[in-house]
Design goal:
Length: 230
């Protein structure tokens, strides 16, 4: 007997579903390229090198640049923004020259680190000399600057309404933006393809749920099929 809600749906058994899946031919080379794309984009240089040797799949960029990119990302995540800017310029000076928003966010992160370390006078001087002129040129920059400078009005910045700027997530956000800019400068996608394909799988299953009862993949890490509810 069909459960309530499935009477109007077509029921596809595991045997039928697996036969349909087996009829879909995917080249191993294409799968290998997806894996390599993930390693390169996410910065797993050792895994990429090992996978290249094992599969014969060539990355579309020099793997040495991954190490340089990860050094920049790590510097931002550690709060060493000056070092990160220097490393970005060593990689490609045009990255910051052609991306004023990224440069402002890096400078904003520098200001946040000064405030975090209690260097109040230095923070005020830096905000006035380096960030204020950029804020005058761009309204969104000015709003971000005002929020950051407002941290100085609180004795306990960790518990103030704007304390999220001092959270590690703010560093990670800036580091991710820098990482994406470097990838773009190398003519590489800023996001790996594999997670987007998994999102498409979930979306497709949700769409199909309205029309059929079929074996689902609920655990993406194992890709195990679960029988339809019939």
């Amino acid at each position: 007997m069909e459960l309530e809600g499935t009477a109007s749906k077509k029921v596809i058994t595991r045997e039928e579903w697996e036969k349909k899946l087996n009829d879909v031919k995917i080249r191993k080379e294409d799968m290998n390229k997806l894996v390599m794309n993930f390693f390169v984009t996410e910065g797993f240089v050792e895994a990429a090198e090992k996978f290249r040797k094992e599969s014969g799949t060539e990355p579309d960029i020099d793997l040495a640049t991954i190490t340089d990119r990860m050094a920049v990302k790590k510097a931002v995540q550690s709060g060493n923004v000056d070092d990160a800017i220097e490393k970005v310029n060593d990689l490609n000076p045009e990255i910051l020259d052609t991306n004023p928003q990224l440069f402002f966010h890096l400078q904003q992160q520098r200001l946040i680190e000064l405030i975090r370390n209690g260097k109040i006078e230095e923070a005020l001087e830096f905000a006035q000399e380096e960030l204020a002129p950029r804020g005058e040129e761009n309204q969104s920059f000015l709003q971000d600057l005002e929020k950051t400078v407002a941290l100085l009005a609180f004795e306990d910045v960790s518990n103030c309404p704007l304390g999220e700027l001092l959270d590690i997530s703010q560093r990670l956000k800036t580091a991710s933006e820098v990482n994406a800019a470097i990838l773009t400068s190398q003519s590489h996608e800023k996001d790996p393809k594999l997670p987007n394909l998994l999102k498409m799988l979930i979306w497709a299953q949700n769409q199909l749920d309205e029309k059929a009862a079929y074996p689902h993949i609920k655990d993406l890490s194992s890709a195990k099929l679960e029988d339809p509810s019939i």
